[in-house]
Structure formats: C-alpha cells, structure tokens
Amino acid sequence: MGSLDANCNASPRGFSPLDIDDFRQQAHQTIEFICEYYKGIESHPVVPRWSPAISAVSSPMLSEVQATVFPGMTHWTNPNFFAYFPATLSSAALCGDLLASALNPVAFNWLSSPAVTELESLTLDWLAQLIRLPKGFLFSAGGGGVLQATTSEAILCTLVAARKMVLERAGHDGADKLVVYASDQTHSTFAKACKIAGIAPANIRIIPTAREDLFSLRPDSLRAAMEADTAGGLLPAYVCATVGTTSSTAVDPVAGLAEAASRFGAWVHVDAAYAGSACVCPEFRHHLDGVDRVDSISMSPHKWLLTGLDCCCLWVRDRARLTTSLSTDPEYLKNRATESGAVVDYKDWQIGTGRRFRALKLFMVMRCYGTANLQSHIGSDVRMARGFEEMVAAEPRFEVVVPRRFALVCFRMRPRRVGADGEAEADAANRRLLEEVNNSGGIYATHTVIGGMYVIRFAVGTTLTQERHVKVAWELFRDKAEAAWEAVQ
Amino acid sequence: MGSLDANCNASPRGFSPLDIDDFRQQAHQTIEFICEYYKGIESHPVVPRWSPAISAVSSPMLSEVQATVFPGMTHWTNPNFFAYFPATLSSAALCGDLLASALNPVAFNWLSSPAVTELESLTLDWLAQLIRLPKGFLFSAGGGGVLQATTSEAILCTLVAARKMVLERAGHDGADKLVVYASDQTHSTFAKACKIAGIAPANIRIIPTAREDLFSLRPDSLRAAMEADTAGGLLPAYVCATVGTTSSTAVDPVAGLAEAASRFGAWVHVDAAYAGSACVCPEFRHHLDGVDRVDSISMSPHKWLLTGLDCCCLWVRDRARLTTSLSTDPEYLKNRATESGAVVDYKDWQIGTGRRFRALKLFMVMRCYGTANLQSHIGSDVRMARGFEEMVAAEPRFEVVVPRRFALVCFRMRPRRVGADGEAEADAANRRLLEEVNNSGGIYATHTVIGGMYVIRFAVGTTLTQERHVKVAWELFRDKAEAAWEAVQ
C-alpha cells in the first residue's frame, strides 16, 4: 500500500489543496474512473477471496486504489450482489452528495447554514407525504423529520426520548424500572441501543415469534409481557416494531402493537429501514397501517430509495419530546434565531453536533426522478424477486420458507427426510450450497436462521441488477444443489 | 422550491438511475458547477440574512439549487468565514469521497467488504504514527483506530466501554454509582453523551476552570473531586480531557489528569477534535504529552486536516474493551472470517451497523499530500492567526483575552472603566461589534463567554483563506469599534 510519504504532490511551497484547476482535473478523472468501474463491474468477483490484509504496491493514486483496494472489496454495486439488503444508488444521489461535499456546511443549528436545515425539513415533509405518513409527522403539525446516519441512531435517540417521557410521568425516579420490548426478529441494533442507553439486560424483553405468524410480533404477546411487567412494578417504556425484518422481511402489525402499548403509555417506534421505501407504492402502503398511533418511524433511503449510504429518515409525532431529551445550549452556539424559537436546530434531533448536508442527495433523488420513477424502481425489483420466487417454487427439491413480501426471497433445499435428523441434514446441505455458490465468485448471497432452519436469503435490488442476473443466479443454485447434498452425506 | 413531481425525468419507462452515460454527463456538469461556485465564492455573503424559510421556484435542478438554496446558506468554504471552527476540504478528499460514494460498500463487518476495513485500519495506523501516538494505539499492539462521524460518537462509545470496565471491576452492580468528569470548558457533547448513556445528572462533575490557568482543567481539582466521590461510596469511571477546547482552544494537561485518574482506575479519553490535526507539526505535538497513559483519543480531520465532513478518528489502547461493550452477533451476519478472530468487524467499534467508506478520503488526503504539505497547511493557518493576534495586540482599544495556541484568536475591545459596570458595558459593546461586523456580510465570526467575559472568536483556517482576507477582516473590526461603543452608551 506504499507509505504515507510516497505522495504525488510533496512540495510544501504553494500548497493549495482546493485549487480550482486541480480540483477540476482530478474530479473529471475520478468520474471517468468511476464510469470505467461501472462498465466493468461484472468482471469483478462480487465477494473477494478471504485474505486478511491488502498487499503493498505503490503507484499513482486512482490506479493504486484499483490495484490494491478493488481486489479486496465486496462489490456492492455489482448486479450479481444479492446479499444482506442491497444499498441502492443513483446519478442524482451521487451528484447531490458530491455537491454537498463541495459546499461542506456543518449545519448543527439553523444559523450555521439556514438553507441546509430548511431543505432537510422540506425534503422530509415531502417524503412523509410520499409514503403517506399521517399529518401528525409533518412540521406543520408539531412533528417533523430529520436525517440521521443509520437506524441505530434513530432507535437510540427515540429510546432516550421515551425514557425521559416515561420517567417524567412516573415522577423522575426508577430508571431501573423501565422495560423495553421487541421481537426475536428485531435487528440486533435494538439490543445494542439499549446497551448504550444503559437499559439493564434484565429489562429487555425479546418476545418470541413463530412461523405460523410469519415471524411477526403478536399484539397479545406484547400485551401479556407488559401486563406481567406492570404487575411486577415495572414501567413499560418502549416498543420497537419492525416493518420488514432483516431475516425475512416479516412485518409486525403496527396497529395492534400500538393498541397494546397505548394502555401502558409506552413509546412505539416503527423501524421500516428496508420496507419503508416500498411504501412509495400504493400496493405496499398497508404495511404501515396503524402508524397514525405510533410515536416515531424511521426508514433508510440508502437501502432501497437510491440515495447511497448514509441516509436514514426519522420522523417523530412530537418533536419537542425528542429535542428536549437531546438538546444542548453552549454559549458558543447561542444565537437569536435559536432564541426566537422559530427555527429547527438539528443538533437537538441527533446524537452528534456536526452533520453533513445529507438532504441534498435525497432532495435531488426525489426531485429529479419523481414519484412515478421511484415506484417503477421498487416495482421492478419486486417483479424480479417474484420471478426468482416462482423459479424456486417450481423446483420440487426447493421450497420458499416464508412467502415473499418485498424483494427478498427466503428459501432452502427441502429436507430429504422427516424429523430432526432430516432438518439437520438440510441445514448442512443448504449451508454447503450457499458456500459453493458464493465461492464460484459469480454471485453473493447470505443466510439466516429462522424457526430453527438454515435459510438462504436472496435479496434482489442493486441498482444495476436486471432479470438476466436473477435468472443466472437461480441456475447457479439449482445446478449446485445435488453436489451440495452429496458433499454432506 | 417547486414540488416533488415537477421532476426532470418523469418517464417510468426504462428508468435506469445509474445509467453510465447519464451519470457521466450529470457528474461532469456538477463538477463544472462546483468550479463556478468556488470561483465566485467571495461574491456570496458568508452568512445569509435571517429568513426562516426558503422561497419557491421551479427550474432545472442545479440552477434550482443555486437560486433557492445558495442564498440561504452559510458558506463554510468562503475564505471570509472565521466562525466556529472551520471545516477544511481538499480536492483529494472530494475525489476520494466521490469514489467512495460510487463504490457504496456497507462495510459493517470485515467480510462485507474486506479492503474497506483493511484500508481503514491501515490509514488509522498511519495517522496515529503521523501525530506520534504511542505504539499502544496501533493494531499491532492490541489497540487500533476507527473512523466515526463525530466526536460525540467517540465520547459515547468510550463512555460505554468505560462503564463496562468499571462495573466489571466493581462486580457488575452499581451503575448508579458511576461518576464522570470534565471541565466547564468541555464541549457540550460530553454532557449529551452522558445523558444518552443514562448517567444521572447528579453523577456528572463539571469542574470549574480559571483564567489564571488559561481555562485548563487542573489535575489537583480532578483528584479532589475523585477523592470526595470515592469517600462518598461512588465510582470514578470516566474523564474527558480536551486538547483545544471549543471556546478558547484551552489544553487540559493530559499527563497530570491521567496520573490523577489512574489512582482511581477511571478511563481517560482525550478529545483533540480540533487541535489533534495540529499535532502533525512537531512544534504542537507536546500538547499530547501524557497520551501514553490514557485509554482513548479522538480527533476530527474534518475540522483541520482537509477531509471534509464527516471524519472523526478514534483510537483505543485496548480494542477488546471497546468491542466487547458494543458487539452484536446476529445470525444473518455470522461468517467464518469473524469466527476466525483474525479480522476487524467495525460495527463493533461504533454505534451503528452500516457505515460509509470514509477511509478512502482520509487515505487520499494523506497519500496525495504527504506530511510536508499537511504540516505546511497547519503552519500557514497558524501564521495567519498569529498575524491577526499581532494586529489586535497592537491596537490599544483591543485585547487578546487568552494567548493564542493554534489558529483561534479570542479577543475583545477593552472595558473603558474598571469594575463590574465597565465589564458589562464592554460585553454589550463587543456583542454589538460582532453583530455589526457579521451584518456587513463581509465576514462571519462567532463569540463565546469565558471567565465571565463576552469574547469574540476569530478562527482562521478555511481552505481558501489567505492573508489578505485576515487583514480585511481585522480592518472591519477596527473600523466598526467606535460605532459599537457609541451604540451601547
């Protein structure tokens, strides 16, 4: 990787790191470099061979990155990438983010760059309307939205707001009595946020789900848990419901959970990181039914709405509840705009103080493409996933483990005999199959375990993926199936 | 601002948001747009007039941004921006970040894009060596570095690690007995991190500083506070020392504080967000003396090392202490590389799971410019600030309030009479002066209050600032001084 001082511009005389001509030349070169990368994207193995360190070379910079970094990368933009959830991207987002980087405002409060805050508020209101959130989440109604980095931050911030709300009601005592709730399908970041916030592990309820409920959290299970806690002198404080879980895109019934939680005064947050983007399409919007009764909802356009990493939207119904729990007021940031009470200071809506101008890329994606294109984008991915699902279902050796809801297909090779031994064999064979397919270098997919089964996750939706990639991917699974069984028997 | 659906590309047929030719054309246009912006940067008022909403227009996108967003922005890249701390930028960082956005890997763990993790570890080791951190902070010695968004995240993560360390030693009980320490000059994000982590306000010690100590935290004050807490049955857990405070770039004596804290087993973190970058120059490195005895240190190259927002480096001496307090292990992320124990999974070093490829821009800044240029960049800003300080000192009506240490000058007009009334008048006059200067639109500076005095902060160092800008700025202050006095008397 060369060394720090083998640099391409070592003269300290007249160092001007933002010289316009230099920038123009380097930036245009970078763009051509990126275009060449995209053109050849399928020539890179999706996921690299296991090697725990990058090797050492020394050459001019872009070619150095190409020679040294590319071979060790997992290429998330490769259309044969079907792992995790895809991170989608677009020209509008790339250009918006480049411009935001060039402007480089640090808009911690309104005054530090008013239009940055205003554009963010406007864009969040637009997106709220696009996925038809209730009016209560708009700024005009006392709610509002903010751009954060990831769902983890949204959960942590709303958890802190919920703690304050519940403790104030209970008389500011008993932080050790607060209990939080989620299902066994909730993203691990929920447990991590609880750990960071100092919620004792004994007060975190991870409620089991079942295959017959398609791995959704049952409202009666939540109610029973809250009743038991209340009877034990504890305070139900926070529920994290998920619309589109990471394992299998299970959807927790938002209305039922909100109803159950309301009796106990707990804050309800909806994590729609992945599936929230699908709600730009009318046919998916019903998954958010009941959201008019929750306190907050987050979704990540960096997952499925073409903005690139990182971009997570958080909306709250009562913005004062969030900001009073996160606000700071140091002398060096005091200003008349803040004192007027008429402006939004986003530092009080997030963990950090400084923040990037993330709104610009989201704004440009929405403004440049518009509703019809965004719906078309979601629809196209869902159609490709449906095609994959149908190919799996048509092949008797395979089964779709849970019905596909969005663009993730959870499937496996069926067990060859009934009972625990048969299941264990199937787990081993499916694990082997996934390894073989990934080792081919042709595609990359990942796994999960749900309902005790080892399941292959096939997530459709990198921006460049087309039907032909999905078809070839399925053929790879199908063709390697027999060998996988043989290898484990 | 138009509306969502007045978009420039509304046809849902054949929507391909990452079409290479479209991207090439739009990206090159964006770059030319940015070059024009930089060329005309001084024609924009640094800080806009107060207006609580952006107005409505509708036109093609980049010109829409120019017409609607620019007039409402505070222009952080304007060379006449002297507010807060500057956010520095460079061509290498912009190109590196653009490439990172185009690659768009979500490198939460090693396997999800190995080279992204490897490059980050390498780059953090390089920067540690550049500012001569002790070997204990390098990966080879069991330490290591990570890129986070901001100092807030670094403080919160290390606070969580400290809590686990101290509670384990104390026998896993008594979270309500943990006490944390900082000075009254520590950034407000410290108190916010404590609030998020659930540290009770009664257990947060904000220790006063004094002008005669140049607003540094005295080790004997820390020791006395810890002794009193220990005598009261409490557990000293965490100290946040600052090298270069936000108000006045005060430097807490790292060695003395580490010595005091070591008797009580508290974790010591050094926040060198701003001044850490200066330590690439040998003449400033002594401010970190004693860092060999602390547990963690963070600095933000987005402040003063040309990387653009956001980019905060956190190094820890014992990486296992950090990762065991933040790790998660969901089934869908399990993989052989993680199980081998031979790789770094950065999701266990931060709050979130997903993460941007921030290392690329920091790598490109260091690799492209090298030590000599980075030193020259810091030296040039310091020289300009020294020039400003000398102009202030040469003018009898003004005074430098605390000696300049880096590139921030804290100054004011002197009181015209001795005593409290004279101080109050001076506060009013200086406040008025700053308002008048900022309202001129020519420059932007901010204020603080230290030692009870209203003080103007003049922070030199946007990437495009030259000596002539500093000179004109000083003339503005000098020329408006008399009128400011008159206005308040």
UniProtKB/TrEMBL annotation, chains A, B:
<dbReference type="GO" id="GO:0016831">
    <property type="term" value="F:carboxy-lyase activity"/>
</dbReference>
<dbReference type="InterPro" id="IPR021115">
    <property type="entry name" value="Pyridoxal-P_BS"/>
</dbReference>
<dbReference type="GO" id="GO:0046189">
    <property type="term" value="P:phenol-containing compound biosynthetic process"/>
</dbReference>
<keyword id="KW-0663">Pyridoxal phosphate</keyword>
<dbReference type="GO" id="GO:0005737">
    <property type="term" value="C:cytoplasm"/>
</dbReference>
<dbReference type="Pfam" id="PF00282">
    <property type="entry name" value="Pyridoxal_deC"/>
</dbReference>
<dbReference type="InterPro" id="IPR015421">
    <property type="entry name" value="PyrdxlP-dep_Trfase_major"/>
</dbReference>
<feature type="modified residue" description="N6-(pyridoxal phosphate)lysine">
    <location>
        <position position="303"/>
    </location>
</feature>
<keyword id="KW-0210">Decarboxylase</keyword>
<dbReference type="GO" id="GO:0006520">
    <property type="term" value="P:amino acid metabolic process"/>
</dbReference>
<dbReference type="GO" id="GO:0019752">
    <property type="term" value="P:carboxylic acid metabolic process"/>
</dbReference>
<dbReference type="GO" id="GO:0030170">
    <property type="term" value="F:pyridoxal phosphate binding"/>
</dbReference>
<keyword id="KW-0456">Lyase</keyword>
<comment type="similarity">
    <text>Belongs to the group II decarboxylase family.</text>
</comment>
<dbReference type="GO" id="GO:1901162">
    <property type="term" value="P:primary amino compound biosynthetic process"/>
</dbReference>
<dbReference type="InterPro" id="IPR002129">
    <property type="entry name" value="PyrdxlP-dep_de-COase"/>
</dbReference>
<protein>
    <submittedName>
        <fullName>Uncharacterized protein</fullName>
    </submittedName>
</protein>
<dbReference type="InterPro" id="IPR010977">
    <property type="entry name" value="Aromatic_deC"/>
</dbReference>
<dbReference type="InterPro" id="IPR015424">
    <property type="entry name" value="PyrdxlP-dep_Trfase"/>
</dbReference>
<dbReference type="InterPro" id="IPR015422">
    <property type="entry name" value="PyrdxlP-dep_Trfase_small"/>
</dbReference>
